[in-house]
Amino acid sequence: MSGSSAVSGAAPRRFAHYFAICGIDTETGLEPDELAALYQWLEADRQGRDPDTAATGENFEQSPLKRTFKSKVLARYPQNVEWNPFDQDAVNMLCMPKGLSFRTQADQRDPQFHSFIITREDGSRTYGFVHTFYEEVTSPQICSAMHTLYQMHNAESTPSSSSSSSSMDSLASSLDEADSPTSSSSSSRRAGGYDSSRDTLYVSKALCLITPMPFMHACRRFLSQLHRAVTADVAPPLPLESYVHNILYEVPLPAPGRSLKFHGVYEPIVCQRPGLGELQLADFPLAEAFTLLGAENLVQVFTCTLLEMQILLYSHDYQRLMTVAEGITTLLFPFQWQHVYVPILPASLLHFLDAPVPYLMGLQSKEGTDRSKLELPQEANLCFVDVDNHYIELPEDFPQFPNKTELIQELSEVLLSFGLSANTGAPPRTRTSPGSTPGSTPSTPGRERKTVALRQLEDDGRNGNLAVEELAVLELLQGNATLERLQALTKRTGVTVARVDALRAGVKAQGTEGQGGRTAAEEEELRNAKLNVQLREVFASRFTTMFADYEAFVIQSAPDLESWLTNREQMHNFDKASFLSDQPEPYLPFLSHFIETQMFATFVDNKIMSQWEEKEPLLRVFDARIDKARLYNVRAPSHRSSSYQRCSILKESAQAIEQRLMKIDHTAIHPHLLDMKIGQGKYAQGFFPKLQADVLNAGPTNNKWSHRTATAQRRKDRHRQQTEHLALDNDLKEKYMQEARSLGKNLRQPKLSDLSPAVIAQTNWKFVEGLLKECRMKTKRMLVEKMGREAVELGHGEANITGLEENTLIASLCDLLERIWSHGLQVKQGKSALWSHLLHYQAREEKLEQQQQAESPVSQVPERRKSDCFLAMPSLRVFLIQDMRHIQSMSEIKTDVGRARAWIRLSLEKKLLSQHLKQLLSRQALTKKLYKRYAFLRCEEEKEQFLFHLLSLNAVDYFCFTSVFTTIMIPYRVVIIPIKKLSNAMTTSNPWVCVSGELGDSGIMQIPKNVLEMTFDCQNLGKLTTVQLGHDNAGLLAKWLVDCVMVRNEITGHTYRFPCGRWLGKGVDDGSLERVLIGELVVPSGEEDSGRGCRTPPLQRSPSQTRRISITSLSGRGYKPTSAQIQEAIGESVNNIIKHFHKPEKERGSLTVLLCGENSLVAALEQFFHHGFKSARLFQKTVFVWDFVEKAVAYMESADQMGDLQETAEPLGMTCQSLCHYVNSINSTPRNIGKDGKFQLLVCLGARDRLLPQWLPLLVECPLILRMYEDTALLRDRSTVSTLIGVLETIHDFPITLEASLVKGIDL
């Protein structure tokens, strides 16, 4: 997409392709601008008025000089160029985006310069440079027509004009005349307006050069010299045709790495083109973009661009819009903007702001229009850049660019070295409070600009080339008597006011020649070029460091280009998970978003295609830089280091440019007389003539240079054709290439010509298709990331998605839904289109509910049936409005965009997103009222497919609401389910419960007597992990047999089951009055046909493994696993713990489950210790493993006292002491956790403190083992025990932390 790509191919390397003149067509006279009329038609349609009664372009409320009249391309030379067909509508529209502009002698009529860009379907670009000036109207018909219009206007206009309240009227008015006249003249105008008898009428005319590359400075100077030739008192040395012919046919494009000098009318013009290894040409002054926005704001806008948000630039000056837009896109190297790019949006294309795709557009503002009056169709994901008032508004949830502070620091130093300040611009604002005003009141841009100029003066070290504003400041300083006196005083005391002196010197120097005989203008140009390249190098070096190893993660799976292009959509080209795991932590929020963008995908595609075809120019330069960095950097690139590396080639890059401009490589043929008849080429002074088409429509035939390039071109063409035949059948290849490259891209540029409603509908249809495709890709990506084996096969490595990546994908889904909901809105309300729709729906439903309160409410969905495990848990209603109310009650969320995002996250977590949206859209009357016919939400078939794609997300579990809103209060419901078939379901004691999760615990809560269900409010606990359940053993019936405890989060509906199956009470079971139960998420089954039931079995449970049953519990008595099963279970449990620690921290899940839950370490060791254990005694109490441990410890202590252990090695004695200390601490805890609970605690503490493998030999060596274990017991098999010790030692590398609920009350 760089300019260079537009030139390649069959195009002869000419500097300019066309010269065009736009203005008023005196033959057709004054025509109202049809496009403006169409715009009014669209507006009327938008507001629901009858479009046909809307004024047909002749808006009588506006003064005739302010109305839009049609401009035309009056002439173009040559008529056509085959490799770049002339797009008349586009050129006309972009040369004069507001149509013709009229003035009288009382108005300002300074010439204006602006540039534009036309992006073709394939992404190649053509640049236009326009010099607009005012020419006297000589046609009596037009003067009298304007006179008549004024009389009609004066008759029509009434003293009080009603103000319209259209949402887009403000846009229309802001696009009226920008260069508003001075106040004195406008008052005289209001009094008299235009009177043909006393006023002179002037109309705008534009001279335009269309070039393949953006040589902005050269074109600007050429056009202004051409205009000067017409207005000068003395005619130029040659006819104008000679100069135009020269630039069209005799000035070549400079070769890469070379400079070129050609001649304008009065002075020579120099331009240069970067070499193949340098950054591509960018001639728009970046310094101006930095001065307008300030370094920090510019970096923020740049970040929004990288993340493909919608960016709207807003300024009264077309050239400023172009400068900022081009400035930002050139900084993207090596990436390229892949979406709608319209730096100057013509008035007639305003409806394009409705586009539900990422865009970078520029909108012209009216002098003094307030930003607050500007209503935009969608703002949820919009970065709004007010260029003139130096401030920006950022979208919410916006990740910062890595090392932003250091980057801004480095940029500021570069700017300061050129004497510019980097801290213009108001601080950026995110959209929080709707009524917040900008830091500087936009209503007084003049005052703002003066302070900026003063601020620049403070930091200015330039001594020369002062801007106009600074000149004004100097005049202000010189004209100020107090300052003059102060200066005299400082001189007497020997202090100099350096800044003012420097200013003086600078202003003096401006008139004289610069160094080396260069004019001040050339000096300025050189300075600009050097500053440009240095600023760009700073950004380029950031990407070179951040993506130094990107190649290692590119997945090159296809054998040839054809098969790659055919399977492009199914293939994964980049190993995102591994790439992110290699990056420093602070970079992740930005990088995880960025690698999901279209520009990154295209960059990787280009890399893969470079195996089979020539490297894309930007990629070639980037790869060369990475190779060079590797060469100099002998050590391997420092991974995971987020230290900032400054750009090291600033001086070299500036020198390359300076050398090219100092030593000119090529001088073009001078303009010369053409073969014209005598008398041709004359014109009246001040009027730009129609040129002689016969001499300008064809180039010279005998030109050596064009002949030479033509032969070289033919040679190149032959070579290219041969290689194409070798590679692939050309048509097929082209078709594939186009399809592959347009993957996921929408329109690059709106069609600027025929804008009938049919064309608009067609454009919107493309948007609808694009949105659907994007939805398909996003949901597929979200699924693949979450689902096990399939993802592994597709090259994602670990099946689990990182929490960070999940968050990125969900954020981009929220953004997509916002764009879908804002497409084709009738009237915009609030910043979030989705939330606004939901509020409308809520209002309607609540109204219906009130009306039908007697009957059953209509809007509820059938209740969800629950399976048997929900016996005592009352079912939770699926109720769209209920979810909205939950969100509305969250005081933490302040904006509509935030509420919509929270609602999407909640619906996704509840697996109800598709169902809720289907319900929302089922109210068709509401959708019709809110949306135009072409809106995505009113395309039935696409809407159904879209809901179906969202439905597929129900196949996986998300915790995207619970994990993000960690501080909100959540109501929980607890139900205790006793074992019914046995008595004592009720107990006389006072039970209590404490619920813990990943984010905290509820604290101990008393349960009212004989009540088995309670609700409590508590700050979000996250995923629930354990429940402590106990009682105080009071009363006669102090025994309690509990089957399980169920806990439900009443907002997300997640229900957890905590199995128990044991007694709580003294003298029964293991004598426990308190148990720590480990939870598992319950999967709702037997769902309604709402389609929520389609899901994969959860990852954490493997169906073959049986549920952990405590050996001593009621149900476990008959269960005897074999020794092989026990050893396998131990290996599996240790494996799971090791895997847990190998996952990134954010998505590890609960360690407690792996230590104490089903198939856990404790369960496996319990089985190991029970193997061959003589537990059941006739007529005696059951013996527990803990009894064995206690007896062993008692034996060791007594042996220690008798001195038996004195002779043993020192470490063994220490180990012995540690075991005794731990067992005694557990026994002396105030908690009544029972014998199995104590064994569990010992295992957990031993694992945490890496003591288990040392304790095992002590227990094995203890003589008691002979009495309490059978001969065949695993514990008495030496080799098995030593294997077990080896297995347990593998978890020593990991820091095991225990949940507070497990170790409460233990004092070691």
UniProtKB/TrEMBL annotation:
Keyword terms, alphabetized:
Guanine-nucleotide releasing factor, Membrane, Repeat
What GO molecular function annotations does the UniProt record carry, in alphabetical order?
Answer: guanyl-nucleotide exchange factor activity; small GTPase binding
PROSITE patterns annotated for this entry? DENN, PLAT, RUN
Q: Where is the composition biased (Low complexity)?
A: 155-195, 427-445
Q: Give residue ranges for domain RUN.
A: 804-966, 1152-1303
Tree of life domain? Eukaryota
Alphabetized SUPFAM superfamilies for the sequence: Lipase/lipooxygenase domain (PLAT/LH2 domain) (SSF49723), RUN domain-like (SSF140741)
Mind telling me which GO cellular component terms the entry cites? Answer: membrane
Q: Give every PLAT domain span.
A: 970-1078
| Region of interest called Disordered, as start-end residue ranges on this chain | 155-196, 422-449, 699-722, 1087-1106
Q: Where in the cell is it found?
A: Membrane
- Give me the stretches of Polar residues compositional bias: 699-712
Where is this chain primarily localised?
membrane
**UDENN domain span:** 53-614
Q: Name one Pfam family in it.
A: RUN
Q: Which family does it belong to?
A: Belongs to the RAB6IP1 family.
Q: What is this protein called?
A: DENN/MADD domain containing 5B
Q: Which gene encodes it?
A: LOC116042084
